[in-house]
Design goal:
Layout lengths: L1 H32 L5 H9 L9 H29 L3 H30 L3 H21 L9 H22 L1
The structure holds 2-acetamido-2-deoxy-beta-D-glucopyranose (2 copies).
Length: 174
């Protein structure tokens, strides 16, 4: 009898605790995303990751940067696939130009931004993020002109994610 009451209450407590931290995380995500230029994108990106119950602003910034890294990595392999497939020389050159933008983002800029956030060097993180933003728009501009950009949507999505990350890092900088 005593054991079953104990087990019952223990289980109930876990459920209560779990729903509480979930709600608190939801609040934190909501509060943070409201301070970014793209609420829905911020909210859906953060909710698509498992958030630890003790997540804080720094943890949220890290998740966002790692998400951008995953997306940039995917876009880079997409660019490399397109380069192999196309027989249009102009397009091939433009894609190669964009690969040159995405390679440093994937290899250095975003991993450095993540490290900097972990180490509390938010100024440097902010610098890395604006560097990534520049690289993406450099790639995007390469297509402005005659050629229809096969990367327009992806670049646009990246730019929004980077804008969101930049706003979150500004919050960290206080
Ligand atoms: C945030 O995202 C979650 C999960 O996708 C969703 O359930 C919730 O309604 C969103 N919040 C707002 C205010 O849109
Ligand atoms: C990256 O962004 C595109 C939208 O341009 C999306 O379709 C894709 O699922 C994302 N990939 C990752 C790994 O987040």
């Amino acid at each position: 009898m005593r054991i079953s009451i104990f087990v019952c209450c223990f289980a109930l407590n876990i459920i209560l605790l779990a729903s509480m931290t979930k709600a608190e995380n939801g609040d934190l995500v909501d509060q943070i995303c409201k301070k970014t230029p793209f609420y829905d994108l911020c909210n859906s990106t953060l909710h698509s990751n498992p958030l630890s119950p003790k997540i804080d602003l720094k943890g949220v910034a890290l998740i966002m940067v790692n998400n951008i890294l995953a997306n940039a990595t995917e876009t880079l392999s997409y660019i490399e696939r397109l380069i192999k497939q196309t027989s249009d020389r102009g397009l091939e050159q433009a894609l190669a130009f964009c690969a040159e933008s995405y390679i440093p983002i994937v290899k250095y800029t975003l991993p450095q931004a993540a490290d900097a956030i972990s180490q509390g060097r938010f100024g440097f993180a902010s610098y890395c993020i604006s560097d990534a933003m520049k690289e993406v728009s450099t790639c995007d501009k390469r297509f402005s002109g005659s050629t229809q950009s096969p990367l327009g949507d992806r670049n646009g999505f990246m730019q929004k994610l980077v804008d969101v990350a930049s706003a979150i890092i500004k919050l960290l900088q206080g």
